[in-house]
Amino acid sequence: MISYMRVLFVHNYYQDLGGEDVVFHQEMKALSEVSGYEVFSLTYQNEKGWKGLWQFGWSAWNIFAAKKLRDAIRRIRPDVIHFHNTQYAAGPILIRTAKKAGIPVVMSLHNFRLLCPSATLFYRGKLFTDSVYATFPWKAIRNRVLDHSFLKTVLTAVSYWMHRKIGTWKMVDRFLVLADFSKDLFVKSSLDVPAEHIVVKPNFVNIPAPDILPERQKNYLYVGRVSEEKGILELLNALKNTDYPLRIVGSGPLEEQVKEIVNNTPNFSYVGALPKEAVYTELLQCKALIVPSVCYEGGTPLTIIEGMMLHTPIIASDIGAIADAVKEGETGYLFQPTDAASIVHAIDRFESDSTAAHQIITARAAEKAQRMHSQKRIMALLQQEYDQVCARNT
Question: Could you confirm whether the keyword Transferase appears in this record (predicted)?
């Protein structure tokens, strides 16, 4: 075990700030507060327009991005390099650059891009898993699964396939995934990485336990990106002919369509995006949080973890990593994704349970969330993996 460790975090920012960017900063800040660690960062930025197209074209083997990392290694001399996103201004070549310098490599997998160019395993309103077990994602290319673009899809597919063939992914000492479901999917896939090299390390959430739980209002709550894969349209369709009131917090590509539906449905209200503290207030006051995702999430959505910690009842899709966290009748209520009748039936079950039953379920969920997603536990897991990969490379 190294008594003093220099850790270099490497991350490729998306064009628009997303959850991975937030986790990158959160994790880096938390580690910097731990005695015995010196934390550094190296970042890349995806651009728009012609510059972005140039970046995408170089993404398979970006020698300029590699030089930037080599310079940082010479300057910082890290004991371990922790990669988050590398798509697309950085690229997988950075892993080879790190290993050539003799530095142990840890990589967080926030999505499924190593298995499919879509990264979400979702296309045109449905799960798309054809690439998971394929040696080359031909069907993904034919369907243009990445931004409906043939060029983007084929460049990403060829890049990740090439790095698989030349052994880049096997150079990663430890992959960190966010949930058991995700690990199982990667292990069974055609990626061909040993199961022992993939470790479950969830994200952490810092929310103090509320001193007093306020009286809950009558409305149900949706919090999240207003987009197809999050199942917002399925939720609206399921509830539009019921009396259940729904508040929608968030923004995204379906915003205008959602606003139009809300304007014609008396029991719906659209709030838009809110700052985190205001979201916590919404979670504390709502009757229950509904999470209708129709895609595989990389891990348990942060909104579910936050809701659990705030003793908010959770009603969610029985799909992927969500089902790892929410257990029917134990820590929440589940329904079949895209099934309107199942969504309504889950809410009916919740409504028919007593207040005492709700309190038992939410208390159990809060205990699980605090135990599994505390900063102390997650940072201890991270430090353990750093120690192991460093010991393995000495």
Answer: yes
Class of the 220-372 domain?
alpha beta
- Helix 19-32, helix 375-392: angle, nearest 10: 80
Calculate the alpha carbon distances from 357 to 61, 62, 284, 376 in Å: 56, 56, 18, 30
| DSSP alpha helix (H) spans, the chain | 19-32, 49-58, 63-76, 93-100, 138-143, 150-165, 180-188, 232-239, 255-263, 276-285, 302-309, 322-325, 340-352, 355-372, 375-392
The pLDDT > 70 percentage for the chain reads 99
* Tokens read off for 104: 């142990």
Q: In this structure, how many other beta carbons lie within 10 angstroms of the beta carbon of residue 3?
A: 5
pTM beyond 0.90? yes
What are the backbone angles phi and psi of residue 331, rounded to the nearest 5°?
-125, 10
Residue 362 to residue 216: CA distance in whole angstroms: 13
Give the whole-angstrom CA distance, residue 192 versus residue 197: 11
Cis? peptide before 88, omega within 30° of 0? yes
Rounded distance between C-alpha atoms, residue 22 and residue 298, angstroms = 15
Same fold, 5-204+374-392 and 220-372: yes
Domain ranges of the chain: 5-204+374-392, 220-372
Question: In this structure, are residues 332 and 314 in contact, taking their beta carbons and an 8 Å threshold?
Answer: yes
Topology adopted by domain 5-204+374-392: Rossmann fold (3.40.50)
Pure H helices in 77-149: 93-100, 138-143
Region 75-91 average pLDDT: 95
Is the predicted pLDDT of residue 1 greater than 80, yes or no? no
Q: Are 38 and 6 in contact (CB under 8 A)?
A: yes
CA pair distance 253, 59, nearest whole angstrom: 26
Q: How many CA atoms lie within 13 A of 109 on its CB side?
A: 29
Q: Which amino acid is at 360?
A: I
| Chain segment 177-196, per-residue pLDDT in tens | 999 999 999 999 999 999 99
Q: Quick one: which of 304, 354, 299 has its CA closest to 334?
A: 304
DSSP conformation letters of 333-389: EEE-TT-HHHHHHHHHHHHHS-HHHHHHHHHHHHHHHHHHS-HHHHHHHHHHHHHHH
